[in-house]
Inverse folding.
DNA sequence: CTGCGTCAGATCGTATACAATATCCGCTCA
DNA sequence: TGAGCGGATATTGTATACGATCTGACGCAG
């Protein structure tokens, strides 16, 4: 893990942000242990601060803290994974609609630049950064819709989606189809709210389809775990 | 504040729960300051624990922490207030639908008992407890829908709704019309998903209508505050 | 050789001490 | 009289020390 993070900052919020980014970009895998002392060493801060950051991430659903055991990058179950995408399906189409009614030329330009960066990352096969940019795109829609509460909520859901993808993505090498992002931006530019809403709904469904969320046991379960009451 | 809380527990989670309940029942008003030492005295724990609880409540949007200033019960702006109810309107109808498809006789009985308790509280004019029970009703729908993520999310939104009500409720003495709760339970009993969804949608709209969320300055602002740059 | 108990090290949880910052009050001076 | 300025006090922020719990290894008995 030492090599995985950039190190430098000092506040709990910054540490949480860097850990979030690492999770989002799959540099930290679900289930990875986050030892307090280790994080202290990396960021050169006291445990007080690190614990603040870890608790913050726990509230956001990115980290699971087991008493007297430690903090681990969360490992969403199949049910939790489904719930994340179900919740997104409930709120994001409405955000796309609202964004279509509010988007300024400046917003559109920003989204286009964003998509270009995403495409560049894909071309360079930088899977992690591409994934993060793809997620951020969705958050930006909420920002354009000027809905702060959902923007905050969506940040969490998108980050958790990254965990779900790490666990349940079917084709490891195929990345999220970015064409729906592009057509969404077109709908936003035209102020076509109905279309934007539909595209977003379909896009989330597409994402869901690329996941393997069938009712199988959570991947390879060790005998030990299977028998643990 | 000393009289307002029951005191006794020891863990951060329990303290957060009691503070949440106090906020939910309007025993703690928006803007109320929560001094760490005071909370320590009340619950007889160290500041470490109290700070954990306060940070937890901050993540849930119930408390605002200003650096070097302290923790205050949150005071949602008009925009935030609208956003809370908009978000609820996006997710709760879907929960009502799902609950209609899953509710067992046991669930129905539980909801009926819940409504009875709510009615009793209203009859006794215990406004706070009635408000809390009314909010819990909505959380129970999500529980019956077996959607843990949204249940958790809704707990936060419902608690924040209590803050919104404290700030923007029009008729102080009139309580939420509980007849829609009753008709919702009927729809759930019949397994009528479409109807349940519609009732919930209408119910949330009703709630919104009882609020004064017009674009006026945030209630009575003191001259001092109004002039402070 | 296997199972179990015990002990040492590692790790987390909590309390407390100290530092940083804000707030309040009284003072001075225009 | 009132605005501006310390300084004492109150309050929060951070680091650290200590205690509790878990983990893994070792050794002994069966």
């Amino acid at each position: 893990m030492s090599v995985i993070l950039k190190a430098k900052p000092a506040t709990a919020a910054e540490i949480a942000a860097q850990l979030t980014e690492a999770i989002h970009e799959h540099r930290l895998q679900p289930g990875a242990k986050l030892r307090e002392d280790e994080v202290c060493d990396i960021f050169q801060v006291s445990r007080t601060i690190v614990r603040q950051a870890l608790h913050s991430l726990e509230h956001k659903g990115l980290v699971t803290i087991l008493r007297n055991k430690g903090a681990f990058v969360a490992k969403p179950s199949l049910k939790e994974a489904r719930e994340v995408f179900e919740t997104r399906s409930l709120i994001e189409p409405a955000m796309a609609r609202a964004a279509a009614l509010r988007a300024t030329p400046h917003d559109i330009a920003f989204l286009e630049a964003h998509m270009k960066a995403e495409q560049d990352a894909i071309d360079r096969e930088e899977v992690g950064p591409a994934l993060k940019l793809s997620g951020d795109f969705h958050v930006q829609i909420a920002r354009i819709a000027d809905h702060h509460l959902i923007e905050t909520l969506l940040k969490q859901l998108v980050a958790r989606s990254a965990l779900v993808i790490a666990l349940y993505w079917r084709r490891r090498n195929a990345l999220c189809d970015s064409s729906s992002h592009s057509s969404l931006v077109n709908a936003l530019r035209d102020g076509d709210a109905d279309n934007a809403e539909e595209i977003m709904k379909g896009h989330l469904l597409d994402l869901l389809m690329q996941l393997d969320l069938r009712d199988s046991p959570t991947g390879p379960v060790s005998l030990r775990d299977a028998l643990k009451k």
In short: Chain A has two domains: 12-73, 78-209. Chain A touches chain B through 19 residues (CB under 8 Å). The CA atoms of residues 118 and 134 of chain A lie 7 Å apart. Residues 35-37, 47, 51, 67-70 of chain A lie near DNA strand C (CB under 10 Å from a C1').
